[in-house]
Fold:
Amino acid sequence: MTGARPVPILTIDALRCWFQTPGGMVRAVEGVSLTVPDGQALGVVGESGSGKSQTFFSVLGLTHGWPGVVGGRANLRGRELLDGLDSHVTWSTGGDGQTPVFGRGHSRWAAERRLALAPALGSDVAMLFQDPRRSLVPYWTVGRHLTEVVRRHGAGADTPASVRALLSEYGFRQPERILAAFPGQLSGGEAQRVMLAMTVALRPKLLVADEPTTALDALNQAAVLETLVRMHEASPMSMVLISHDLAVIRRVVGHVVVFFGGRVVERAPVEVLLGDGEVPRHPYSAALREGQRRRAAALPIHGSPTVSVVSADREAGCPYHVRCELRPRLAAPSQARCRGEAPTERRVGPQHSIACWGVPD
Structure:
């Protein structure tokens, strides 16, 4: 007899995040749905501007700029994160499709929501950012950072010995030097490992790591990845690892979601997308893997990538069709469908789905 499936720690459904800019409405996230299983690690991949980071910024109240999140639902451990939004946003329909119209209370709602979510970002969710120094107070020592986190969140004893032990656990051979240092005196790898130590001190149920190794050299990147793997294996903590580097994703996660143009284009177990014996079904996923292979072999990478997030005047079709190597080989009616109709996600294998008109079932 099989046990009941675990309740997801985070569920996102039909999320839309649009921004009003001088150049028009930018659709940063468009209809994204995904689930983070309790106790498991999910990888989110895609190039810069694909919407992968903005998806999580949006539901956790970390969106910068106005208006921010404008549609969808998100549930964190039974807590609805986007409740109240519909009363401040309506949608008008015109020649360019639906356009959000924001009521006067939207800005106040967004500010109140950030305050309401603040406690959850300590007890339930922790976020590890790409640039660790921007998350540290420049005029506080590392020792003060760690002591404040432990004291405010009740994550253990805030004695000097316990704080030193926390740093030693994360590979610092001279914890006294690190405790006395200010953020500007740390290397990139040291600063990121300090952030990891602070994150673990919070004992979060969910860790969202946003490109945590991008700014690091190969040695520090390996150290941070090993720490992430050890953290996940040693606790029931769930994890989302956001990256454009498939080698990073392959080492940590069990399931992968691929973003392009603010949409999910493929999701599958990591061995299907990145394993040696399988080929990703979506053309963009295949291009990502081929680029990774050629980079590892020191070969030139072909192609001409463009910005994947565009304004509201973009065509209604597949966001990848301009760059797609598969589309020119399709029949004319299929090519027209790629240009004019956004593909819906469909299942092509166990735990494997894609959004592409050109790939057969």
